[in-house]
Structure prediction request, 236 residues.
Amino acid sequence: MALAALRRPWVWYQTQIASHPLRTQIIMSGILWGTGDMIAQRINTSMTRRGSDFEAPEALLIHDSRQSKTVKNIPLANHDWKRTATCSFFGMGFVGPVGHFWYENLDSFVKNQLRLQPNSLQFILAKTIPDTIIFGPLHLITFFTLMGLAAGKPINKVKDDVKRDFIPTFVTEGLMWPIIQAINFRYVPVRHQLLFVNSLSLFDSAFLSWFNKEEDAPWKTKLLSLILFEKKSDDV
Prediction:
């Protein structure tokens, strides 16, 4: 029964991606990126409450009769729906359409122009390297810029935030995404590669939303200084 319940949405998705690939990618990207931000906000709220001597007002306390104890209720009224909508818009407006054409054209270029054997090491590297150094930075810069503008920040502040956040985020994500993409390019059919990435981007969007929300946290400055110091050390 459980497998049958899971199989139906997958069959529906395959039908939609075959008949309306771009539209399907856009919708799925919007849903997954919005969901990722909701996860990020819940995590951030939990971490904030644990790290403080927060006392919930009586209106936020509910009684759990199953465990015979009173627990804190975190209402959705405190959720930043504008931020979630912005992340969902990023998924629909950038990740969905740009990702769709990126994977399709990258595959066509490597196969038809470079004429590399599919699934060979050269084939995988020829996709992973440009994905890391072209699509990755574009993806991060667009995300941080959109989030800043949607928050009503002036353009100069947005530029400063992007400069502050880009390098630490790019280095952090660079530790895992090239490996994930190598697996993606090796085993996942082209038309499902964006879905594969978006599924994992539930965690990525949660990470980026949290990273963006931290703003001028001291640990960001320390991380950036460490990265730049290591770079200077290598140049000596």
The first strand starts at residue 61 and ends at 64.
